[in-house]
Amino acid sequence: MSQRHFSADELLASHDYARPQNEAGFRLHGGHDAEGRYISPRSLHRSRAIEAWSEGLRERGGEPLQADASLLEGIRCPNFEQMKLLLRSGLGQTFWNTLTITGHIEGRGRILAELEFPNFADHVVQDISDRAVGHLNGGLLRAHGLDEGGEPDKGIGGHDVMWFALRDLAFGKTDFEEPGIPERIARPDAGERRAPQVAEPIERTVVFLLNLLMIEFRAELGFQLTEDLLRDPELFEDRRRDAEKAAELVERIRLDEEIHVTSLRLILGEIRGLDFKVEGKPGETVSGETLVDPLWSGIVQWATVHQPRAIADEQRRVLSKRILAHADGEVLLERFESLGEWVDAAA
Q1: Domain around 103
Q2: pTM score
Q3: What does the pLDDT read at residue 312?
C-alpha cells in the first residue's frame, strides 16, 4: 500500500528548482526545472499524498465530491466580447480592476495557513489518520494558504502577487486608482445552525470548505477569461510579448489551483463517508453524506441562481456609468448592451 501518513514538513516541501520564479520585478513562489518547466510550490510530496488518499477513498467505495466549475457557467458581466470592447475603446480600467481585485482576494486565502481547524478524529467513529481529513492541521491546508498568500516575511509572493505581476506585465504603469475590494465573496452566513446534529465547529468547518471549493470554481472561470483576453492578438498590441508572459503566469496559477480543487473535493468526499457522533446522544451517529449534501445544495443554489443575478446587475450599473463618461458613450453603451445576456436581478 502506498504511503498515507505524511508529516507537515513533507506536505510543505518543494522541489529543488533549477531557477526560481521571478517575473515583473517580483520574487514569486514555485520555480522551474532544468528544461524551464514550471513546478508548483510545496508539491514534492503533496501531489502524491493526494493521489494516495484518493486511492484509499476509492478502496472504501467512496469518491471525491462530484462537482466542477461548470456549475457556474451562465450569465457573466462583462463577458469576453464585452471586456474586449472596453479594452479596444480605451476603457481598460475594468480589466485592470478585475486583475487587482483577484490578487487581493487570493491574498485572503493565506488565512488557511494560520487557522486551527477542529480535530475531526474526536467527532467521528472511523480512524482518519491515513486520510486527507486527518491532515487538515498537519500541513495540508497550511500549504494551500501559503500558495494563495505567499510568504511575505521571506519576500516570496503567492497567487496574490502573481496577479499583480501579470497585471503589470499586461498594462505597464497606469494611473488607475485601486478599486474597492468586496468584503466577502462566499455565501453570507446568518449564523443559524443547519446541521445541529454535529458539533458546531465541525459544521462551520464543512461550510467553510464547501464555500472555499465554490470560490475555487469561480476562479477557474475567471482564469479562462483572463487568459483568452491576454492571448487575443487584437488586444495589448503594443505589449504583446508582455501580455503573452502574463498569460503564462495565469497558466502557472491554474496549475497550482488544480492541487487545491483536487484536495478539497477529496476532503469533502472523505467527510461524506464518515460517521459523525451526534451531539448529546452517546452511541448515536449521523452520516457525513447527510451533513455535506444539504449544505452543498444550499451553497450551489446561492452561487448559481441568486448571486449571479445580483452581480450582473451591479456590474451593469457600474459599467454603464463608466461607459457613458466616454466621448462616444451612448454608442459604446448600446454596443456593450448588445453583446450581453441579461436577466432580471429581481426575478
Answers
A1: 8-338
A2: 0.94
A3: 84
